[in-house]
């Protein structure tokens, strides 16, 4: 297919996902307001000028995504990777789960877990219905619906934002040119359902990949996704990022996507310390998380409404938290910042 046609197909594909996300959000809030009119006053419409800015930021993200594929950071096919089977199997369940979400929202019930869910042994900050999800991160249904919910939230741009870690990751790994591709070890902290590991696998087919997360259900889902890819299976381990279950100086690179806004401030610091500990001298640590107020003040409206609409108890503090200072405090240096659409990236280096 000629390059211009592939690009047009990609843009149309993404625009389709964006419209789908928008349509879902509109329909869902109309239905919710019908069933629970009292919740209506709490949601304010997004101002038009902000919608224009968001569209510009989204277009910029997609252009960068396209350009990185053209530069060979990852194969072009990754731009079209979409969990279709999950979409058709689980989209109806997103709707079926909605009334329970609205009820919890109405009751302001944020720690609602079914009796069969074992919440013992998890940190209390974690035993929450993040995003009002039924059973938080602790059920198989939650793991099956998670990627769809994130896609709807970001208008189909979640993977495009995750892919922004790949160029700095490959750049950071150049410090280890003397290692064979197989000897390179990469850890994804809070790997969730494995989307980031899947993207890393496509960009670095031979690297040894590792993922850790607190949720057994999400790890099961990650295993299901990653075991379909030919080549070596990433090693998945259940663990708390506050005590990473790996020896010191083990990984050439460590990544973490959409974790830090879900941690209390002191835990953010502990996790950063742990990531420093397990990174090899000369290695790179990349965080991808939400935008922050300091560099995206024009999106303050989004940052204010996000934790209201979705249950995100630590998000507000996150938006003003100085992560650069936290990274420097444990010893990271040469910290580069990037912003893409709704995400911010911290690319930090452990001194050689
Ligand atoms: C918003 S999800 C992000 C998942 C994935 N990285 C992604 O890109 O979609 C947050 C993830 O962090 C995990 N998590 C939260 N606190 C954790 C902790 N202290 N240690 C390990 N994982 C944690 C959750 O189980 C969940 O899978």
TrEMBL record:
Keyword field contains Lyase: no
Residue ranges of every copy of the Methyltransferase domain listed in the record: 186-283
Domain of life of the native organism: Bacteria
UniProt cross-references to CDD domains, sorted A to Z: AdoMet_MTases (cd02440)
Keyword Endoplasmic reticulum part of the UniProt annotation: no
Species in which this protein is naturally found: Nostoc punctiforme (strain ATCC 29133 / PCC 73102)
PANTHER family in the cross-refs: METHYLTRANSFERASE, RHODANESE DOMAIN-CONTAINING PROTEIN
A GO term for molecular function: methyltransferase activity
GO BP annotations, alphabetical order: methylation
Transmembrane segments: none
Pfam families from the UniProt entry: Methyltransf_25
Keyword tags: Methyltransferase, Transferase
Protein's name in the database: Methyltransferase type 11
